Structures
1.
Amino acid sequence: MNATLIPLRQTAPLPRYATRLLGAALAATAYVACLPWDLRNRPETPGALQETTPVTTTGVTLLALALLTLAAYFGIRDRLAWTLLVVAAPPSTLMFVSFDAHPTQDAQVWPLAWAFFTLVTGVGALVAAAIARSAARRDA
């Protein structure tokens, strides 16, 4: 079996945790690269609740592909709980910090948006990991 696909529980602790940290760093980097963080968000018109945003459909699509790829990889190599922590937690944390950093909180809807996107990211990571794991077991 390829060394990059050996289950992490069968490796020594240092490579195991280094792989997990690298995965978390890749997930965070994908979030930062695909969804630019602009603290200068401002209302489209004076008094409007809608803000301008640097987020694009292409960025969201690329982020989803990157996170699904990471989730599939860690789904094959690690437990599902670790996959959730490695793949979904870093973007969720960065999103929380980004939402919380806005200087004005007029409508206070960001906690709901954060909870929704965290749920979507977590479920997506778990589903991708489970599908990859079952496909890998079928092929073995």
Note: The longest helix spans residues 110-139.
2.
Amino acid sequence: MRTVMSGPARVAYSQIYVESGADWADLGECFAGQQNGLCGAAVPGTLFLITGLHTGEVQFTVEVHDTMPTVEYDAEDVVEAPYRPIETAQLVSWGGSGSWALDLDPGADYRVRYSAWGMDAGHQAGPPMDGESSPDRYLLQFWPARSAPERIVKQTSRQAAYKHKAVREFPTPAELADQKREKARRAEEQRLAEHAAAWGGTLPTERLENVRFARELSALDRPLVDAFERTGPETLRVIARWTARRACVEAGFDQLEGIPDVLARMDRGDALYDALYGPRPPRLPDAPVTLGFGILPTSWDSRLDPFENVTRVVTAACYDDPLRAAIGTTWFGLGPFEHHDQLFAELRVAFPEVS
């Protein structure tokens, strides 16, 4: 026999646990389908242990035996259950405030006996003061054994009787599994509803999901975004250039020096750098040019220099993906319009395909 822990252990909410790498399980899961309400062993790798004292330190001893030990004759309440540690097993205080390794072999089958003294007195006591001991104490014993159903060996205290009775009203493991599946189903249903609401009331296709600003534009006019998705690439490219130009006109930028030339080069289909700055000098290497804004812009910003906003809509119009170009320029292009519906209405008039 090895005593692997002996001394004060802190409990809270009348709980202390044995854990071995398993995910956290609540009281209902650990006691599901059991007869005893002191040692919850229904979740693999976990023991959910109940004490009389609500909060404070109780005397706790943990022993590991080679064979089944005799029952402590003076123990008031005794229960047994099967246990198989998944990884290294530890006795753990509520909230992780203390832990003790238990020297059990992961994957091996054990029988565990949980014996209690003074549960009623512990339940009635307040938290012990510094240096005081709780009136209840506990012994946890492990030994190698084949798995067998949990059972109540001895019942004396009113507190143990109450706990035993309470857990028999818990859902069975099958009922608990059904409840968890239903909860997961409702959560997924809620998630999808919220996701659809963010997209203007309808879930997006996989293609739209991956287009930047598609969600933001869908929240304003989902039918227009759906129409963009159905439209051919050549028309989408024309829509993108038309929208970029229309935004610049609405902002009055088409009257500024240099901007008409930028829009003309964009309409001609020049590459982005050439559209913004004109043909490159021969001395520049013929390599792709990446334009950066520091933080990637998310909308038109009237506080910026006009060329910065022109750069934003023209850059969007030059995106490789025509759908991304149409959506991006429409999103940026809303900036100079006092009423968003004006741009949407003009788009539908200019391009009956998206009506």
Note: Confidence is low (pLDDT under 50) at residues 289-294.
3.
Amino acid sequence: MPAGEAILAAVLAWVVAAHVIGHPAPVFAPSAALVVLAEARGRRLRQSIEIVLGVAAGVLVADLGVQALGPGTVTIAVVLLLTVGPMIAFGASTTLIVQAAISAIYLVAVAEPRIDVMQWRCLDALIGGALALAVSQLVVARNPLAPLVREAQRTFTGLAGLLDTVDEALRDGDRSAADDALRRARAARTRVERLQTEVLAAGEAVGLRVGRRRYVHQVRQVEATAAELDRVVDNIWVLARNAVTLIRLDVPVPVELGRAFGALSAAIRAAGEALATDLTGTDDPQQHAGLADHTALEAVRIAAKLLESEPALPLTMIIGQIRATAIDLLRGVGHDDDVLDRVDEAVGLTVP
């Protein structure tokens, strides 16, 4: 699919620039299309804008440099200094800097800096970037949110399954399974990173469609949820690490801890369904969000009762992480106003 997108965008850019616009040598149009498609989805609109700006800046500086100094090695050095230096100083992106530098070198060393050259090159950049964006959206033309929904479901299901694995390892006293869960917990951050990438891609997709812009708020909500999931992953990693310690020290594991893990796992799955149904509109997201709220607080209540028996330190750490996971999860589904008070009340703490 990426190869097909690249070929189609490059060919279309050449055809439009050469045969529709009439540029006799539109080499930069397909090049610009390929540069844009090389960027990850969600960052391609910015990439297109930066290419056009970089080309314009490089051509302008090259034109002024040649007029003042004439063509030659010294001119190339001066033009690059005046083009790249200020951009680096002001923190411009790599794409912007590279495109400006390439355009400047091309016009000093190969072409004569004329106003028509500047116009052609900027137009090529615009054509290549625009067609790359158009082609990249063909895959998600019918439903731009579908990849985001799938990735969100995979992310939440994966995190819930990881909790189930930790629970099974504790119940069976299986240290190898607990070690495996710990390794998976370390790698779970990549799930959240993939979700964040899909958020950017969905935001770009709905932003480019006038009729789809009503989904912008929903995409932003998923972005906020993904930020909280980062913390949930950290909490699950600490849970897995303390599970390994419990098994290694042969500390008895109460049956109630498994119930707490089960409730927390159910809360994560319900939170994932709340997010997915909010994006698709196939069900009532508030129903799933309410279930996530209920089961997360139930996990906290079950775990808090274990503190009455003065458990071992690793078990106390697990109980604390169950509370922290519930807080971050509920914040992720939009319950941010009074979540601390409600979780502390479930633990049995007095809220003033």
Note: The first helix runs from residue 2 to 21.
4.
Amino acid sequence: MTSPLRAPSLATLAATFLFFASPNGAFADGRADWPGYAWQQIRIAECLASGLTLQCPAYHQKWDWKRNQWVDIAITLDLSRGQLHLTQQLTDNDPHDDDYVCVTALAVDADGKDLVAHHQNWHIGPGQVIERSFIYRSDLRQKVAVIHIGSKQCRQGAGQDDALYAQVLARIHP
């Protein structure tokens, strides 16, 4: 015996509308601004403390799920200097495929407000490894609650999501 379909209640419809129609989108922490990214979340409580330095768990994710192509990110927060250190590495182990790869990291406070944003769109060729380190300055003391890191293959090529990054930075540094 099958049960009859029930229409959603008015409360369910209202909650769904408010969730997806909110000014910040489905995620109240800035991730909704970045369509198509595969996200991982690092809670600051998961980072290992050594004095006023926090070493966060590493990010390791494929940018193309069917190929041996990887994004690796290491993050350290230096609370005494108000610096977020980020080292990003792309590894393309596919000998026949090159891609544009978008990588975004957002450090957000407990209310979901972006405090630091990182975005790179790099072209990588077959068999290449690219690595760069970045330092972002912000008042990190007692503010950063979560770091979201997302990556994707940028099929639209160079510059994809760069204008979006500029908009996000403008909201952080008005």
Note: The longest helix spans residues 10-20.
